[in-house]
TrEMBL record:
EC number: 7.2.2.8
Family indicated by similarity: Belongs to the cation transport ATPase (P-type) (TC 3.A.3) family. Type IB subfamily.
Protein name as annotated: P-type Cu(+) transporter
Top enzyme class: translocase
TM helices/strands, residue ranges: 278-299, 319-338, 350-371, 383-401, 544-563, 583-604, 905-928, 934-954
Record organism: Papaver somniferum
Any single Gene Ontology cellular-component annotation: membrane
Limits of the HMA domain: 37-103, 110-176, 185-251
Length: 976
């Protein structure tokens, strides 16, 4: 994720494809490329070389196994196999059939994502997870209520995606396959010129023969084809050309890009439309019921006709209310009965159960009253048809408003996915690298190694490297950093950013799912699906909540019905035209409805969705709810020095020669040796030597050849230049090689270290001939960030492998008081663990491979985005801008999110805690206030909407610290 530079970090995806080692092999016959995997495990009873030979020869004959290596000494086997031809279970069985025991055998794990419809609360997610875990072969299953998705890890030898979908459908929900996580790049094409099955067969065989094509799916009904391919070998334009060339001599096939509609957005709109229509139909029938029952009777002249008898005691009003209420209860409300059936079938209870119980009690009691009135000449009873009708109407209104609001929680993610432009200008070159054509093509047709022209004001369509031209690129939409970044040949550009003022040519390095934008979207999607630990509270409550509510409703009914029958309270408490049974029934129904825990399940996931999306738009990638929750507890932040607190680009600030050797000759010898090293300090020395040569107008010829070059980790390097034996490194290297260090050299080293400079000594033929003082400039925002963290009651510690003097000088400059220096990578991790043993929640901020153990050991690992991929993978949070102010942003956003989640729980449980006693009639004896069931339904709907709207307020989050960085670093390289 480094902004500029000529290294290859951008070529590695932000998220690795799988845990297995994946190698591409080519079949002997021209066909599709097969992927191989390598697995390692232990084999028992391997006693001698003959055992090894028998295993290797037997397995070597098995179809799908590429190679077998068995070590008798260690009892280990390494097998390379083709997953499409053989699975791990068959390999294990083949070894056991030979009479050997297998230990530590890896599991063949596949990952699939499913979209799920019909979930209403946390109880639904728990039920689906339980149903999935009961399927043989499923290892883990995580279901996200807000995303309406499930991510499942399973053994493909024991089950498959169809069986998983069937398990979800058996639990009463709809499910469909979204993607296999390990799918490669896909292209959707629409075919023309197809006349029969023979044409499909020709096209399929032609595509499968293309190098790089992994899978071909034909849709014969709609004449479409989906192709999964490896972008290193082919691309959409090549595949279209292949289809066109597959035609018969007098016929030709045509293929064009087909962009399938966005599944999630289309389904969300369908769900919104569905709830809207259900609500409108329900309202259409319920409004007259409410008017006939509650409004017109209050105006005697206008409502008298409702009391006319139709037959016996059956009135016109009662008959109309029954006719209008029945479609609402039995047709529109049938979804609650279906949901209840499946919930009870799987041994759980959810919102549907409560709604079905409450509305059924009101409807069927009212139906009893209607039948009794039509068959009796003296019966007087009150119906509650308006209760069930209005209850269903308000619940549907609440669900409609809820899905509307839930859609906005993923707005930040939707904006990210739409950053890339629709079209791009593709350049075609002749053999002499002259441009011969410019064509505007769809971004989806871009292939690796294409050269794209990007004009001023246009969006960068894809990830690549600038080959020609200079410009400034605004990367704020991905990093949150508004300052334009200068781009020149060799610099990287990221798809979705905006080219501001110059025309540049860019060579494409990433396409499809490999682009930084796609990786970010994947990372945020995974983060939004992961449950935060605080979600466990909601899960535990919801498991027992519904049964407790049902018991509470029954007890409420009995608490009012029995005293009413026993005349234990005044009869004037009972409303006119109602008896004690009806009053008790209304209280019971109100308790059932008002206590529904729908909002509880939305409290955490909606806040996590908004926060992770907002974080991504600010340049802070948070890998899931767990990382988000842990960050708010951080009380200690451990910073690496090089590349984290400092720029990570060392420069030489002074040089001193201790021998009569000419300065230029000394620099040339040092440069010759250091040119073979990749170390940042070595590069600084080489750069300084080149600038010195340019200043002196010296010969700019090639660097002298070095022999016997050797790297001494942690010490320096050595080599032979001409006849000179050269050592370049620190004091420890000189001591180890018995090179004498004079007092003059000691003074120079001491002076340099006190100024936070690293001293590089150069010894030629056993004598220290000179030295370089190298400094790594401190990031301009470092001091402010440390100060701001202190104001947040967070302690900052610096840990580094550098010497104590340099470390203390840097720490003093940025305001850190606790320093741990001269520490190796494992030592850094041990220091983190020591701090954790003291009860501290520790965050580690680093950027290099050597930081990855510490990043993994910390409670929260924060990787600088410009750092290595290993560090990024080990971290919980990725700071894309490499700006330290985002450490503050990550912790502050975490604290704000956890505070919002707690507030959401107040909204979710507040309605229940306050509403249940009122619904149960606690206030009725004293104030006459009671909560009719339809009002209870409105309160239940309001709780869910309140929670979602509360989470949406996180969209207005603003980072607490923003520091304008200097445009250019100070150039010290000319100092001597």
């Amino acid at each position: 994720m480094e902004t500029n530079g000529k290294d290859d970090r951008l070529k590695a995806p932000l998220l690795p494809p799988s845990d297995s080692v994946s190698i591409t092999v080519y079949p002997t016959s021209p066909g599709k490329i097969m992927k191989t995997r390598t697995t390692m495990f232990r084999i028992g009873n391997v006693k001698c070389s003959s055992c090894v030979t028998s295993i290797e020869s037997a397995l070597g004959k098995v179809t799908g196994i590429e190679s077998v290596t068995v070590s008798a000494l260690h009892g280990q086997a390494v097998i390379k196999y083709v997953p499409e031809l053989i699975n791990l279970k068959a390999i294990r069985e083949a070894i056991e059939d030979l009479g050997f025991l297998v230990f530590e055998f890896p599991e063949d794990i596949a990952v699939v994502r499913l979209r799920i419809k019909g979930m209403s609360c946390t109880s639904c997610t728990n039920s689906i997870e339980s149903a999935l875990l009961m399927v043989e072969g499923v290892k883990t299953a995580v279901v996200g209520l807000s995303l309406e998705e499930a991510k499942i890890h399973f053994d493909p030898t024991l089950t498959d995606s169809e069986e998983l979908i069937q398990a979800i459908e058996d639990a009463g929900f709809e499910a469909e396959l979204m993607s296999n996580v390990n799918d490669g790049n896909k292209v959707h094409l629409k075919l023309e010129g197809i006349s029969g099955d023979e044409d499909f067969t020709i096209i399929r065989s032609s595509l499968e023969s293309v190098r790089g094509v992994n899978q071909v799916e034909m849709d014969k009904e709609s004449n479409k084809v989906i192709i999964v391919y490896d972008s290193d070998f082919t691309g959409p334009r090549s595949l279209i050309k292949c289809i066109q060339e597959a035609g018969k001599p007098h016929e030709s096939y045509h293929a064009s890009l087909y962009v399938p509609p966005s599944g999630r957005e289309a389904e969300r709109q369908h769900e919104i439309l569905g709830y809207r229509n259900l609500f409108l139909w329900s309202f259409l029938f319920s409004a007259p019921v409410f008017i006939f029952s509650m409004v017109l009777p209050m105006f005697p002249p206008y409502g008298d006709w409702l009391h006319h008898m139709v037959y016996n005691m059956l009135t016109v009003g009662m008959l109309l209310r029954w006719i209008l209420c029945t479609p609402v209860q039995l047709i529109i409300g049938s979804r609650f009965y279906v949901g209840s059936y499946y919930a009870l079938k799987r041994g759980s209870a959810n919102m549907d159960v409560l709604v079905a119980l409450g509305t059924s009690a009101a409807y069927f009691y009212s139906l009893y009253v209607l039948i009794k009135a039509s068959t009796s000449e003296s019966f007087e009873g009150m119906d509650f048809f308006e209760t069930s009708a209005m209850l269903i109407t308000f619940i549907l209104l609440g669900k409609y408003l809820e899905v509307l609001a839930k859609g906005k929680t993923s707005d930040a993610l939707a904006k990210l996915t739409k950053l890339a432009p629709d079209t791009a200008w593709l350049l075609t070159f002749d053999g002499d690298e002259n441009i011969i054509s410019e064509d505007e093509i769809s971004t989806s047709l871009i292939q690796k190694h294409d050269v794209i022209k990007i004009v001023p004001g246009a969006k960068v369509p894809i990830d690549g490297v600038v080959t020609k031209g200079q410009s400034h690129v605004n990367e704020s939409m991905l990093t949150g950093e508004a300052r334009p970044v200068a781009k020149k040949p060799g610099d990287k550009v990221i798809g979705g950013t905006v080219n501001e003022n110059g025309c540049v040519l860019v060579k494409v390095t990433h396409v499809g799912s490999e682009t930084a934008l796609s990786q970010i979207v994947q990372l945020v999607e995974v983060a939004q699906l992961a449950k935060a630990p605080v979600q466990k509270l909601a899960d535990q409550i919801s498991r027992v909540f519904v049964p407790v509510v049902v018991v509470a409703a029954i007890l409420t009914f009995l608490a009012w019905f029995i005293p009413g029958q026993a005349a234990m309270y005044p009869k004037d408490w009972i409303p006119k035209a109602m008896n004690s049974f009806e009053l008790a029934l209304q209280f019971g129904i109100s308790v059932l409805v008002v206590a529904c825990p729908c909002a509880l399940g939305l409290a955490t996931p909606t806040a996590v969705m908004v926060a992770t999306g907002k974080g991504a738009s600010q340049g802070v990638l948070i890998k899931g709810g767990s990382a988000l929750e842990k960050a708010h507890k951080v009380k200690t932040v451990v910073f690496d020095k090089t590349g984290t607190l400092t720029e990570g680009k060392p420069v030489v600030v002074s040089m001193k020669v201790f021998s009569p050797m000419p300065v230029q000759e000394f620099c040339d010898i040092a440069e010759a040796v250091e040119a073979n090293s990749e170390h940042p300090i070595a590069k600084a020395v080489v750069q300084h030597a080149k600038k010195l040569r340019q200043m002196n107008s010296s010969n700019l010829g090639h660097i002298a050849e070095v022999q016997d070059f050797e790297v001494h980790p942690g010490f320096g390097i050595s080599g032979k230049v001409s006849k000179n034996v050269v050592l370049v490194g620190n004091k420890r290297l000189m001591v180890a090689r018995k090179v004498p260090i004079s007092s003059e050299v000691e003074d120079y080293m001491s002076e340099s270290e006190q100024l936070a400079r690293t001293c590089v000594l150069v010894a030629i033929n056993g004598m220290v001939s000179g030295g370089f003082a190298v400094t790594d400039p401190v990031k301009p925002e470092a001091e402010r960030v440390i100060s701001f963290l202190k104001s947040m009651n967070i302690t900052s510690i610096m840990v580094t492998g550098d010497n104590w003097a340099t470390a203390n000088a840097i720490a003093k400059e940025v305001g850190i008081t606790t320093v741990i220096a001269e520490t190796d990578p494992l030592g850094k991790a041990d220091k983190i663990k020591d701090l954790q043993l003291k009860g501290m929640a520790v965050a580690m901020v680093g950027d290099g491979i050597n930081d990855s153990p510490a990043l993994a050991a910390a409670d929260v690992g924060m990787a600088i985005g410009a750092g290595t991929d290993v560090a990024i993978e080990a971290a919980d949070i990725v700071l894309m801008k490499s700006n330290l102010e985002d450490v503050v942003t990550a912790i502050d956003l975490s604290r704000k999110t956890l505070a919002r989640i707690r507030l959401n729980y107040v909204w979710a449980l507040g309605y229940n805690v306050l509403g249940m006693p009122i619904a149960a009639g606690v206030l009725f004896p004293f104030t006459g206030i009671r909560l009719p069931p339809w009002v209870a339904g409105a309160a239940m709907a309001a709780s869910s909407i309140s929670v979602v709207c509360s989470s949406l307020l996180l969209q207005s989050y603003k980072k607490p610290l923003h520091i304008e960085r200097a445009r250019e670093l100070v150039d010290y390289s000319e100092s001597v």
